[in-house]
Amino acid sequence: MNEPSRFRPERPTWRARLRRALAMGVVGILASAGVVILSGTAEAATTLGASAAEQGRYFGTAVAVNRLSESDYTATLNREFNSATAENEMKWDALEPQRGSFQFDTADRFMNHARGQGMDVRGHTLVWHSQLPGWVNSLGAGDLRTAMNNHITRVMQQYRGQIDSWDVVNEAFQDGSSGARRPSPFQNLLGNGFIEEAFRTARAADPAAKLCYNDYNTDGQNAKSNAVYNMVRDFKARGVPIDCVGFQSHFNSQSPVPSDYRANLQRFADLGVDVQITELDIEGSGTAQANSYRTVVNACLQVSRCNGITVWGVTDKYSWRASGTPLLFDGNYNKKPAYTAVLEALGGEPGGDPDPDPGTGGCSVTYDETDRWGDRFNGRVTVRAGSSAISGWTTTVTVSSAQDISTTWNGSPTWDSSGNVMTMRPNGNGGLAAGATTSFGFTVMANGDWSQPRLGGCTAA
Ligand code: G2I
Asked: What is the structure's pLDDT at 316?
């Protein structure tokens, strides 16, 4: 099995964030000037990620980097999910468009965002017949083997210690009853052995990452999943390094959730690998869609080695099959019935407010990151009045000792002697009506440290 990553303990995990939120909820501070309540609650979790964490699992989504500039997209991503997969940005054509010339900028942005939010990351994907740059198709066998191993090694080393699971080989089997391998440059020139060669190369490149085989139409027992099953059993018997199997789980009316979904996950888990639901989406709407999602989540919860679920996108409007509205948030980021079904199945609390009402005379603060560049990011703090009007507010933002806040807007800052703690007050009149919000922003120079700023409570006047 894997050695635990020596990098992993240093990052702000979602578990730590959950613990922090719970601790803040029970502490709650009453200040003399007004009521100060730190957001958070010791009751049932109210987001997908926090609920899944209470079940010992992650709940992730595919992320499209070019959507991170849309504030509703990013706010929903950051609030609900504690794992992320790059939808396209870590595929071969994106990372190595010309042989030996690697382009990591966009993938780095994805990694920085996900890790800055304390999310786990699934790497997707190293060896796949699709989204291959043209040059791969023109190589002879010897060059292709070298190129495959070089691609795996360079990409995994770039993110060494930062990826929880990698889809090492994706979709290498045919659909239908043959159980055969799918034709591809790798299969055609290197034969069946390319898969185990890829896994061995991957283990050497990043020993901390779990190594997965990932495929679709393998969600129930059928000829294709049997063929994958036989391969995994053979790998385990011969000591080929494999740690997990991904079940994409793209469902619609032609291809519904199979009745033996849980049993199929279990038989793979019984081979001694983790199982993960990696690209879940279910076309449909309303109760029918919600019921299918519930079935999938319950199946995962019933298999102890099913350690996480990833949906293939945040909002229906950006889904690869948007017309089928297959996701948990609609095009306006409203929670769909399927969202509530998933949250309930995970033991979370439906209708949970991510920004709890601080009550009479109080205010609350929430943080989100609105932009990121190679050296800095912008943060935004939203201040909300509770159930009665307030005439002013004060809050603090603490950055790490490496970081510097270089600019602020829409607020009046003062600083402690360390320069790391900024106290922010309104510019001019800070009055807010009951339930009203305002926000201020700032730029943080990361200086290599991308950790998220910490908010103090909100003190109302
Ligand atoms: O096809 C659904 C998924 C099946 N399993 C593997 C996944 O990697 C795959 O994801 C999809 C993405 O969701 C799509 O966004 O993979 C597609 C490509 O095979 C992605 O579509 C591509 C379009 O075909 C391109 O035209 C486009 O330039 O997305 C690209 C980036 O937006």
From this structure: 98
